[in-house]
Write a structure and sequence with these properties.
The chain has about 300 residues and is an all-alpha fold. Helix content is about 75%, strand content about 0%. The chain contains 12 helices and no strands.
């Protein structure tokens, strides 16, 4: 290969990596914006309304792709495990938005950032995967970060915090199941999750229904569209650049959670939340880098859809 060819290949790879990083950062911004939009809406409307209208908009956008790949929905691997995955994904999204009714956005995101730590612990305890002392140490440190963020006391160890933590644990089990369903196409996984939230929302929405204003309908639709677009950006990012390059940028979601929380809702994050988030991110990144060195190059955080 000539020098010019090598330079051209190197430049192409660098451009692809930069594009992958840019798309990952854009996707995390959009996920965070969608989360803030959802928190704003559940201040007036029920979580059920948010789930059903948000999922409705997302499924309308996805419908052409679903129709094009409809044959893939008829050949699902392990259908019962697929059903469990949809149930867990539905519960964790509902828990996320229910928690945001009572808690600052940064607090809820902090608990969800612990997902990869929970995944590694569950991999060892449930799946009997080999986890060395280095990763167990990072797991314990990450749990300390969760406890610091929770600020456990009679006043602060509240039901909303437990709901957020329960959602985070459901999210971790969801990620664990997703690992074992690698052969399932992305469109099947994404659309089935939106179908699950639509069905749960349809059951919940009639209780305490508030007729949306035209402006609110636009926001409901925007929440669904943003989730779908962000999901496509994540997938495209991982195709353009190695996971080891783009995954660490997913932790920028805590930055946007703090910014949106302050600008939109006037929330000032508690120092314990910031300290806990920093510890969780550090532990999560260490676990990710350690797993990559062991040949398991997987995404550390998969934002909920």
């Amino acid at each position: 290969m000539s020098v010019l060819s090598r330079l051209s290949t190197s430049n192409d790879e660098r451009a692809a990596r930069l594009a992958g990083i840019a798309l990952m950062l854009l996707s995390i911004f959009m996920f965070s914006f969608g989360d803030a939009t959802g928190k704003f809406l559940v201040g007036t409307y029920s979580v059920g309304q948010l789930l059903v209208l948000r999922a409705c908009a997302a499924l309308l956008v996805l419908s052409p792709v679903i129709w094009r790949h409809r044959a893939q929905f008829l050949k699902l691997e392990r259908p019962w495990l697929q059903l469990v995955r949809v149930i867990l994904s539905t519960l964790e999204v509902a828990a996320f938005f229910l928690a945001t009714v009572y808690l600052p956005l940064a607090d809820v995101i902090t608990y969800y950032l612990a997902g990869p730590i929970f995944v590694t612990a569950l991999s060892a305890l449930v799946l009997r995967e080999q986890v060395g002392w280095r990763r167990w140490s990072a797991i314990l440190i990450g749990f300390c970060g969760v406890l610091i963020a929770l600020r456990p006391s009679a006043q602060t160890f509240s039901l909303p915090a437990l709901i957020a933590l329960g959602g985070s644990l459901s999210f971790a089990v969801l990620m664990l199941i997703t690992r074992s369903l690698r052969a399932t196409p992305d469109i099947v996984m994404a659309s089935s999750q939106f179908v699950g939230t639509f069905l749960l929302g349809a059951v919940m929405a009639p209780f305490g229904w508030v007729t949306p204003t035209p402006g609110s309908l636009v926001l409901f639709a925007a929440a669904g569209l943003i989730s779908v677009t962000a999901l496509f950006c994540v997938n495209r990012s991982l195709k353009l650049a190695p996971a080891s390059v783009v995954v660490p940028y997913q932790y920028s979601m805590i930055v946007w959670a703090v910014i949106f929380g302050f600008v939109v809702f006037g929330d000032v994050p508690h120092p314990a939340t910031i300290a806990g988030a920093a510890i969780i991110i550090g532990a999560g990144l260490y676990i990710y880098l350690r797993e990559r060195s062991l040949g398991r190059d997987e995404g550390a955080v998969n934002p909920p859809v």
